[in-house]
Amino acid sequence: MAQDVGQDTNLAQSGDTRTSARVSRETISAATVAILCVVLLLGARFVSPALGSWSQVETVLVLGFFLVILSFGQGLVILSGGLDLSLPATITLGGILATSWVGAENPAAWYYLPVVLGVCGLVGMVSGIGVVWLRVPPFIMTMAMSIIVASALLGYTKGTPRGAAPDAAVAMMKSHILGLPVPVVVLIGLVLLGWVFQSRTIFGRYIYAVGTNIEAARIAGVPVAAMQILPYVLSAICAGFVGIALVGYSNGATLRMGDGYLLPSIASVVIGGSSILGGSGTFLGTVGGAILLTTLGTIISALGLEFGLRTVIEGSIVLIALLLLREELFQKLRSVWR
Amino acid sequence: MTGAVSGTAHAVYEQPSVALLARGLRKAYGATVALENADISLRSGVVHALLGENGAGKSTLVRILTGAVRSDSGTITLHGQPYAPATLIEARAQGVATAFQELSLVPNLTVAQNLLLPAMPRGPLGLVSSRRVIDAGAEILVRHGLERIDPSAQVGMLPLAERQRIEIVRAIENAGQMLILDEPTAALAETDWLFERIRLTTAKGVAVLYISHRLAEVREICTEATVLRNGRSIASVGLAQASDDDIFEMMVGRRVDQQARDRAAPTASADAARVSVSSLSGHGLNDISFDLRPGEILGLAALEGQGQRGLFRMLAGLEHPDKGQIAVDGTTAQLSSPRGALKAGSGIAYLPEERKTEGILAGLSAATNIILPVMPSASTAALISQQAEQSAARPAGQKVEMSPRYLGFAIGDLSGGNQQKALVARTLATGAKTLLLYDPTRGVDVGTKQSIYAAIRAFAAGGGSVLFYSSELPEVVQLADRCMVLYGGRLFRTFEGKAIAEQTLVAAMLGHGSNEGALDR
Q1: Min Cα–Cα distance to chain A from B359, Å
Q2: Which end of chain B is least crowded, N or C, by CB within 10 Å?
Q3: What is the ipTM of this complex?
Q4: A interface residues, B as partner, C-beta within 8 Å
């Protein structure tokens, strides 16, 4: 078996360039997305002078708040090799509980809001347990949970959610601190937290391991069941949090408030460079993907196009972005740069 | 048809009745040369055995002959015509059919459909007629003495032995020129039916290539044999002229002298067993009992599929035994997962068989891969940085002589040898006192092998216990203090110290010679 020796020396010689190649791939991914955002915003100026201003950047960040947080949860689930289709229902659950329960009884009682998040987390845990122990495929399990939760909410509200937004939710979404909107500050904090969780904790490592190869992770002694369930729980908590935030932003809940967020949450993760099959990708890439999608949405709606046309353009751009941001492109870029 | 046995290979080549003649076959998979230079000559109406150790190139040769892969170089002629099938169907069209060891039946189709595929009898409208299919299938079954099998039964519902018979019948039906039987008796309890089928087939002038690990069987049905070793055909012999010892020597070669054990005989350890296995059954094993003592390197030698994988997976907590007990440090342990095995008593760490699919986590760094089982102890309040990972992985990496600069690379980018070093380092980093190493040096270069051997010896010298399986006998001879031989799922023989030699091991692996326990057949 001496044939392995030659290969080994070759690798050793080319060794030093490999980490840099790896780093540059992630940098390129994040940088490409960031550059695309800037180009889009500046380009929009030519279309309409109102676009591309600082206040529009703020608008994008506030609107992007929801998608970034959702994509963190969705990204973890996808990283672990699953998929969470129950986001819309869980967002609505968080929103309805915040208005019909907390807001209607005692709007000042901010300390009930963690309980709301806990309820959402339980929904995620049921999904995770179904996927791991009952071996239901993730998209069936989370879709089923989605239908169950949505129907239960319909029954609970009898079709018309009552109540008002809790004070804390309104404060979080509507006030300013040091001249910046509070949601932007909260968003920056949460992005930091999410980045630390995904790339600097043992849980993050375990989830990467489970998503890369669950059998190898099991053999290596990773608690695979827990690390498959955890992403669903976190994703549901994120969705519940977004539900509460949406309620604070628009001062009320509706039964369809989460509907528009499912596909963008998945698209952000994939545009951000993660594999839809799990095991690879970074949270910062996902953040870039979410901001890019939000920028796009803002510009398109500012153009005053018809809804149908808007959706067609949005869909096409997502498709083009996915095609452009594929792995091959980075490999090509890397080989050109060498 | 000439049934006579010829004395030498060259005499065989001169016979006019040569059915298939292959010369200088070579096949490499990437850097791994599976077949170096193989010649084989099969005669019409003669059963020819193909013998060799694990990895000698038997499967590759069979795959070339069946059209599953194409050889890189070399020529094959079938009755004087060039023969280079690109697919199984092409091979079959030329009258070469194979009964595969792993069976190639479609489980959710009926027996009759499987026997007749791909050409089904059609009804008047040109559609497949299920009645005609069943009639034709039944006719084939009757012809081969298998009336008891219902032609309309789903293949997947039948017992393994019946499936194997159907696989063989289908091959015989399609073998106009040559029949290849790859381990045809693996699932059969008796050989009478098979041997009668083979005799009827050879009577029609078909050449038969018979691959089996069971030498007694080979002697009964085959008249000549080709021995492969390290991808080369070593000899073609008439079986009547070759003794068992001759054949073992041809299979193993004369390496025995060079690769003699370079260690003193182990001191008999009186310590209590660290891992004690009693009457373990299931997953291919049948009533196995043994003790693994502190400081001991226990080798396991067996041909493929004798239950070794089941044994390791049960000890690692990946499979549940049907019967029997595993005790760690004197306490019966319920090993329900690899994580549980790591925590059982002084711990059991497992190096899996398949590096790519069960071992490495390709996108993560080598350091992460090494410390994955002990991640919490390398972290501060669940936080971990790449620097912390690398410094935690360094000591284990040093034990296998892995260069620290590789620790930061994605393990998937490293060479196979370094990946394997990292995986061995992972088992060392767990702190477990028992290592289960399944083929610890599979597919690595000589230097890496020595590093891994040194790490294993140092681990045992420090009081650790090692159970390892190797598909390479020299490795068993070099490393093992004691060696168990599995055959047919049972513990066939155990050798100690100087008694561990390649030829005796080969004999035992083929189920030859006296044994301690009961023999299956």
Answers
A1: 5
A2: C
A3: 0.82
A4: 1-8, 11-12, 15-16, 18-19, 22, 196, 200-203, 205-206, 208-209, 212-213, 215-223, 279-280
